[in-house]
Amino acid sequence: MRRAACLSLLALSAAAAPALGQVGELHLGAIASHTDAYGAGAGIVIGAAPVRLSYAGLRWLRSDGAQLFGADAGLMLPAGPVELMPGLGLGAIRYAGGDTEFFAAPGAAVEVHLGRFAIIPEARWIVSGRPEVAVQRYQGLQLSIRLVATLEFGRIRH
After folding, report:
1. 113-148 CB burial, b ≥16 within 10 A, e <16
2. Alpha helices in the chain (DSSP H)
């Protein structure tokens, strides 16, 4: 009995792979989005997830009604096979008529990994306006989906 346990332990030790910890991830990809204010649009996103506990990124969207330039920051919370990403976006919207407004957009996303790619559906509540006008121009839901290539960086090897 004791000999079988030792052989089993030896076999498991030989078969075990070294532990690998990922320090971060870089995202580069495309985004498709829709709001009632500027309709459907598409653009590009780039971001970094240091330690895969936080996220910071930039996005650019273009539609028939506007261009959106934004910076995003948030958390990445592991939840089984996906990661929950609550966060906040800040930036500017330039409408086709020439008006420019600032926006804040709290929201949440879910990152689903598919090999070296990730699909990230997202819902944000956008509030936009100009500082000199006390009344906001737009307030509403923005739905988007990102398809990004994920590049890992800085793995820890034990």
Report:
1. eeeeebebebebebbbbeeeeeeeebeeebebebeb
2. 2-15
As a whole number of angstroms, the distance between CA 116 and CA 152 comes to 9
pLDDT in tens, 2-35: 666 555 544 444 443 343 455 788 999 999 999 8
Q: Are 150 and 25 in contact (CB under 8 A)?
A: yes
Q: Could you tell me whether strands 39-50 and 20-35 are parallel, antiparallel, or unpaired per DSSP bridges? A: antiparallel
HSE-CB for 85 with a 13 A CA cutoff: 26
**In contact, 56 and 72? CB cutoff 8 Å:** yes
| Residue 76: φ, ψ to 5° | -125, 115
pTM of the model: 0.79
Name the phi and psi angles at 132, rounded to 5. Answer: -80, -10
Q: Delineate the domains of the chain, giving CATH numbers in brackets.
A: 21-157 (2.40.160.20)
Q: Of the candidates 87, 127, 140, 85, which has an alpha carbon nearest to the alpha carbon of residue 109? A: 85
- Give the span between the Cα atoms of 73 and 51, in whole angstroms: 14
Dist CA 112 CA 78 (whole Å): 11
